[in-house]
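pasting for ref. prot 1 ->
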Amino acid sequence: MKDILNQLGQLFILGYRGEKPPGSFLRFIAEENIGGVILFAENCSTPYAVRENVELIRARLRKDQPFIAIDQEGGRVCRLKGAPAEYGSAWSYGQASDPSRFREQYVRSAVFMESLGINLNLAPVCDIFTNANNKCLTERCFGTTAADVTPFVQASVETSSRAGLLSCLKHFPGLGDAAIDPHNETSVVNYDPVVWEQREKLPFVAGIEAGADMIMTTHVRYRNLDDQIATGSEKIVNSLIRQMLAFDGPVITDDLTMGGAAVLGSHGERAVAAFEAGHDILLYGQDTEAAVEAFDYFREAVERGEVSKDRLTSALSRVSGIKFKLKSTTSSSSLR
């Protein structure tokens, strides 16, 4: 158990506020051997600043190669601004029905990100935009049908892989029909299971077949499957992702500091609930205080025996496996 306790940090990806990672943040991630860091716009003022920040983070996490993650979806969700990192919105490419153009423009961004030390892009968005009132996903979806979205998901995953970046399909099981933004409160979708299989499921299947590395859920209640939100739903993670989609890579939460996750309890209770539901990586955004609170609570829950040892072993195995793949793809990127 001591060995597992020393590895718990590998199950977390954390963010920070400010242009540079604060000393307290760097000390914490080093002491707890945190699995990775997510960069936001304020951490990416210039390419030089990004490279410098990544080097500071890597210097503190020498033992295990850290995930350096970012949301670089295109359009309004581009943490890195300016050429060559910034590119158009998913909606603009989808409206043009031209995956080739998307590949040409995204590949420049992907190669540039990899050159800065970023190794995980939390994209593509696999959601199908079926609710015009969905402000959270405005311009972030490739289209209104599975046929619209699927070729772009494939293109994104394949391009990321060639550039040496890990990819992440989001937001499972599909957020396109929601009217509530999970950043603020829990979203709700009313997909009929048959409709879900014939529509929302398809872009995720295409992404997995293209070689996607991770799947991200979000704080949405899929009423026709489970009363619990996806973040805390063993049914959604195991029945849909693991069994129906046969995906065995890491499953990551959306930011657990979001308002939509509050139904799971305190920051620490959210971490335990999400992990026990089957998530392998717990994501905390820029609230370092909340992240430290969650990590301490999670560690104490493990020590009390409240977290399954089998769950810990399988999650740590998936994380180490994808990091091994990351080392291989980084060293042999065909686009260097």
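and prot 2 ->
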Amino acid sequence: MKELFLVGVGGVFGAIARYLVGGWIQHFFPTFPMGTMLVNFVGSFFLSFIMYLSEYGGIISRDVRLFLTVGLLGAFTTMSTFEYESFRMLEGHDYIHLTVNVLGNVIGTIFAVFLGKEMAILLRR
């Protein structure tokens, strides 16, 4: 029961953060889903950082890791929104934005995972 509570509370905060951060960023990019891409990048970085820091350093307890990764970051990242926005670009034959969006999200978030891992390793040295 405690795990469900931690995930649920983290999810509430993650969803609110996603709405605020994604919306704020999107305000500056009205024709491209930059808010979604940035949220995915930031979420991937922090998920990786927390998981690798936990693995390499044992600094983060299981409960805190569950709250942050499954709850907060699980609600913060936006894979379903990314897929919907990409499909809308495909429907609209906006192939340039579609390509930038897909490559930016996929390659950018893999790079964010790498950065999170490296940051965790550096912090533990």
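Residues 22 and 35 are 4 Å apart (CA to CA).
The chain has five helices and no strands.
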